[in-house]
Amino acid sequence: APCLSGAGPHGACTAAREDEQITLLQHATARRRELPLGPTPDDLGANWSLLEIEQKWGSIDQAVDASTSEERDGRSKGDTSEFLQCFLLKCFSIWLPRYEYQCAQCFWAWVRGLPILSWPIGVNHVAVGYAMDMLSIPLMNPFSGADTYVSAWCGGSLVGCNRKQNFPGPDTTSVMDYYSVKRLGSQMPKKVYDGEWWRGNELGFIINAPYLWSGRETRTDPIGISLGLIPKQKMAIRGYVDNLFNVPTRHSQKKAWENTVNSMVAEFLSSRDTIEVKTDITRLVHQILMKVVFDVDVTWAQAKTFVTLQTMHVGLATLAQLLPAIAYPWLTGIKMGVSNEMKKYNTLVKNKYKSLENQDCAPTSSCSIQLASTVWDAMSAAGGLSVPSTIGTGLAVLYSNASNNPFPAGEYKKSQALEFYWENVRFFAPVVGFPHWEVPPTCAGLNANETAALQQPNGQSQACPTKRNRPFTGYPDTNQYQHGKRVVPNLAIAQRDPRRWGHSGNQFKIRSKTTYIRNSVGFAEMASNRWVAGGKMDYSCPGKDLALMIGEAFFKAFEKDQWEVNGNPKRIKFKSGPTYFDAFKLKKVTSS
Questions:
Q1: What is the CA radius of gyration of the chain?
Q2: 46/449 Cα distance (integer angstroms)
Q3: Cβ(566)–Cβ(584) under 8 Å?
Q4: Is 279 exposed, middle or buried (0-12, 13-18, 19+ CB in 10 A)?
Q5: What Å distances lie between residue 166 and 28, 116, 133, 182, CA to CA?
Q6: How far is Cα 409 from Cα 417, in angstroms, rounded to an integer?
Q7: Strand 126-127 with 202-203, pairing
Q8: Which residues of 344-377 are buried (b: 16+ CB within 10 A; e: fewer)?
Q9: How far apart are CA 492 and CA 430, in angstroms?
Q10: Are 334 and 309 in contact (CB under 8 A)?
Q11: Rounded to whole angstroms, how far apart are CA atoms 385 and 278?
Q12: pLDDT of the chain along its 592 residues, tens only?
């Protein structure tokens, strides 16, 4: 505590850090295999100091890597004899728990070794292996439930789970341990600003197809989600995004937001006889966001229309990667719906911020279009999706009677409403990955060296040159994967890592507010650096406090005993994100 507060002596802080890192190494060696360079349990038992560890292995991170079991590789050698041995041992051992899952893993490990997995698929050239791995994750749901991500990335155990090579997809490294995730995230602002890292059209581990962002009048360049802006654009609009979604610091303004959120939640709960979880919650959150951010009243009918478009957009932005170009015109209606929403936001932000006209977001036509596209992303895929998702998981754990409910107690104190909601954000991470590319995919029409030359220091990195639109898709040829090297810190696993969260890290357990504040990486809190472009290169979530405000307000107002499941509570089963649970309906309890 003195170290964290800054009140303690430097020596005490150093000792605390050493203890923490030694503990980290001890956890890492728990499943150690015979590797020549790593510290052994005997080494650790000899009371190595932090300095001695760094002198022997170069750094704490290298020591951890060396001491763990060999890095998990999502792509094996494809050895047929190994596959047959695994198949015979695992697939016929029906007396073993989860033998179906172990059998399936034999097959996937063998298939991942095939060269075809590096081949491009779809119009945006993502790798076959990437598509296959992403599609394989939900197939684990029947065996793993809410622990599906732990199974997919860590083989079912968080102990010693640090990195996984070539997953999801070839040339992708997933990083899972808390300390590495936090370190890499903290480097994001400077690394992107310096041109060392590149970010693409990605939401977590998902690589979005650009098509649904490619409306002629609202197209940005690069085309896609605002998480992939080039530094120049990000620095131009980040201040406006913070102003829109940060909870005001002035007490009177903050109180006004709280009153608005509380009253809208109360009106929602009192006026409804049923709640479709999570569709109705998503509509409510959209109404709240539009009211507090833009002071715009959205009717329930308008919210329903928005959520329908949002649902199709989120799903097809992923699945469109697998479609041939000739199928894209069938998605025109959704693309135009997204463009029409962006036009509304464009009007709102231009009226709110006259200074946008003085900003430069080239090659996008204007910064108002760039900001409007960012608002759409926030409303449809960031807070507009993650907040209702984590409220929905809260309702699911309260009412589910399924055997895989991670919180069978199903109760919380009203004084713990914030902590209960934050535990949902931690355990059911709405954003799973925080990606960057050490080597960007080669731009269409350029070679690797020409693409690398676009990455420049001091925030001067450039987008791939704009080419002619392709038939059917209506946007230029785009390479989103080939010849790139991708690294994805896994926020979902880091949020459960027992090396930081303790032995109950993989359990749904309401913790203290202080614990969440100190440990959370779910909002990419570490990706802030005011020394880089005055904070305008920050990648931390600007709507964190607003999300927590909405979640706390909902669970303070919600009365469990006034609602019951319309159907069988055992059918509310848990699975991988982003949905995490089977849809269900609540109805008000009627007095007999």
A1: 24
A2: 49
A3: yes
A4: middle
A5: 21, 14, 10, 21
A6: 15
A7: unpaired
A8: ebbebbbebbeebeebebeebebbbbbbbbbbbb
A9: 8
A10: yes
A11: 10
A12: 334 433 444 344 444 444 444 444 444 444 333 333 333 333 333 344 444 444 444 444 444 444 443 345 555 444 666 667 776 776 766 666 666 666 766 766 666 667 788 999 999 999 999 999 999 898 888 878 899 999 999 988 898 899 998 999 999 999 999 999 999 999 999 999 999 999 999 999 999 999 999 999 999 999 999 999 999 999 999 999 999 999 999 999 999 999 999 999 999 999 999 999 989 999 999 999 999 999 999 999 999 999 999 999 999 999 999 999 999 999 999 999 999 999 999 999 999 999 999 999 999 999 999 999 999 999 999 999 999 999 999 999 999 999 999 999 999 999 999 999 999 999 999 999 999 999 999 999 999 999 999 999 999 999 999 999 999 999 999 999 999 999 999 999 999 999 999 999 999 999 999 999 999 999 999 999 999 999 999 999 999 999 999 999 999 999 999 999 999 999 999 998 888 999 999 999 986 5
Rounded to two decimals, what is the model's pTM?
A: 0.85
φ, ψ of residue 507 in degrees (nearest 5): -120, 145
- Phi, psi (deg, nearest 5) at residue 355: -70, -10
Q: Can you tell me the distance from the alpha carbon of 36 to that of 38, in angstroms, rounded to the nearest whole number? A: 6
Q: Could you tell me which residues come within 8 angstroms of residue 45 by beta carbon, excluding any fewer than 6 positions away? A: none
Q: In one letter, which amino acid is 59?
A: S
Under DSSP, is residue 333 helix (H, G, I), strand (E, B) or coil?
Answer: helix
